[in-house]
Amino acid sequence: MDAWKGCWMKQVRKLKRDNKFYIGVFYTLNGILALILASTGMLTSYLYVLSGLILLVVLVNLVFAARTGNPGYLVTAVHYLVLTLVFGWAAMHDNTMSGTLFLVFCFTLLWVLYIGITRKVKWRREEILELAAKPVLDNRDGFTERPYPLGKAVYSEDELRSFSRFLFRHLVAVPYVEPGRVVLAITGHYTDHMLKIRRDGSRDTWVAFDGDGNISARIIKEDYIQYKEELTFDQLCESLGNLFREFLDLHQKGEEVRIIERLNELKIFPFTGGLIGF
Amino acid sequence: MDFKEASKLGTYIAKEHAEPIFRLLVNYQDISASEAASRLNIHIKTAQEFLEVMASLDILSREEVYEKKRPYYRYALKKEQVGFHIDLSYLREPEGPETRLDQQIRERRNSKARFNTARNHPAISTAVVWLGTGRDRQERRINLSLPQGKFLYHLPFPTAAYMSIREIMRKAEVEARHAPEVLDIVDLLVSFKVIDIDKTKK
C-alpha cells in the first residue's frame, strides 16, 4: 500500500502540470464511443478501423523497440497486437468478444501497467527538467537561445558512446552524433525523433559533449516556459549540464543504476507523456 | 589619398571621356574646358566637371586667365603618372587602450537576438538581429569569424555576472591578436542592444 501511495505522492514540482493524454482516458472514451456506435449499427465498421489503427501503433512500438533497444516497447507492442486481435475478432464475429483473447488482453494490460508504473517506457524529459531546476532558487529570468558552455570533463570516445547508448535505452535522451561532438536531445517530441521526422537535436533542449571534453547545455523556450517561475536562466543551464556531468561520472564508475534511481526518486506520475509506448 | 578621394578618382577615371581628355592634357601645354569640350565634342559642363575634379585631386594645375575681361581657367597636367595609393592603416581599430579589453560585458536581457551554433566547434556561426519596428522591421544576419564565434559562445548570459572581454577571450581560447575583430563585433552588438556594458565599472 505504501509503495502505491509513494507512487502517486506529489512532490514539490517546479514544472507546470503535464496535460498529456492519459491511457485511462483513451480506454474510457473508446468505451463510450463503442456504446454509442453500437446503438447506431456502425460498431462493426468502427472495430475494423480501430483494429487497423492499432496495428499501426504496434508497428510504431516495434520501431521504438528497435531504435532504443528498450525491451519495454516489445511488451507494449504485444499488448497492442492483442488489442488489434480483440477488435478484429469482434468485428468478424458479430461484435462479440472472444473469451480467450479477452483473458490474454487482460494479462498483457496488467503487464503493460506494471512496466508503466515502474517507468520502464517513460520518457524522462520531465524528470530531467525537474532535477535541473532543483538547485535553482532565484527567478531572475534571463532567457537566451545561446548554449551555455560548462567547461571540460574527462571521457573517452567509447565511454561517451556507451553513455549515450545507455541514456537512449532508458529513454533519458536521444543521442545524435555530429562532427566533433555528441548531442543528447532531451525531448518531449520523442515520436518525431523515433520516426525520423526530427533528425537532430536542433529544436530540442540538449546537452553536448565534444571531442575535446567540452560540455555545453541549451534549453529551448518551449521547455523554459514549462516552469512555474522564471528561473534564473544561466543557473538553470549550468545545473542541467552538471546533472549530465554527474550522470556521465556515474556511468564511468559502472553505477548506472543510480542514474535511474535519481530519476525515479522524483516519483513523477508514470503515465504522463502520452499513452504508454507511444 | 583617403577612401573618399580614391572613390572620386575611380568614378571619374571610369568615365568614357576620361582617356580622351587626358590625351589632350598630355599633349597640350594647357587647355580650357571649352577647348576640350569642342575638341572632343562633349558638353562643356562635362569637361569642366572632369577638369575641376582632377584639379581638386592635385592631378592637374589650374590657372586663372583673363580674355576679353572674362576670367576662365586653364588646366595643365602636373604629373604623367596617376595612381591609387590608399594607406589603410588609419582604418585599424584602436586596439589601444588595454582598458577596452577590461570592459565588463554580458548578453542583454530580452535582446531577441538569435544565435546559431556552429556544427563542429563550440562557437556561434551567425547572429541574427531584428532592426526597426513594424513594417520597417528588417532582419540583419551577421556571419561571424571563428574567433568572434568562439568569443560569443562564452559571452555571459543576461543574468550571469559581467565578465571582462579579456577574460571571455581567455575562456574561449581566443588569441590576443584577434582582439580587434572581437572588439569590432562587441561594438556592433552593443549598438544593436544585444550586449550590455557594465557602466558601474570604469
Strands of the biggest beta sheet of chain B: in what spatial order?
1-3-2
Structural class of the secondary structure composition of chain B?
alpha+beta
Using the alpha-carbon principal axes, give the shape of chain A: elongated
Largest interface, C-beta closer than 8 angstroms, per-chain residues = A-B, 24 and 22 residues
Q: Write the element-wise H/E pattern of chain A from the N-terminal end onward.
A: HHHHHHEHEEHEEHHH
Tally the beta strands of chain B.
Answer: 9
Quaternary state of the chains: heterodimer
Low-confidence runs of chain B = none
Strand order of the largest sheet of chain A: 1-5-4-3-2
Radius of gyration of chain A: 21 Å
Output the number of helix runs of chain A.
Answer: 11
Question: Could you walk me through the main structural features you see in this protein, from its secondary elements to its overall organization?
Answer:
The complex is a heterodimer of chains A (278) and B (202). Chain A has 278 residues and is α+β, with helices and mostly antiparallel strands. Chain A contains 11 helices and 5 strands. Chain A has a 5-stranded antiparallel β-sheet, covered by helices on one side. In chain B, helix 3 packs across helix 4. The chains are: A alpha+beta (278), B alpha+beta (202). Chain A binds chain B through residues 138, 140-149, 178-181, 210, 214, 216, 218, 232-235, 237, and chain B through 107, 109, 111, 113-115, 117, 119-122, 124, 152-160, 171.
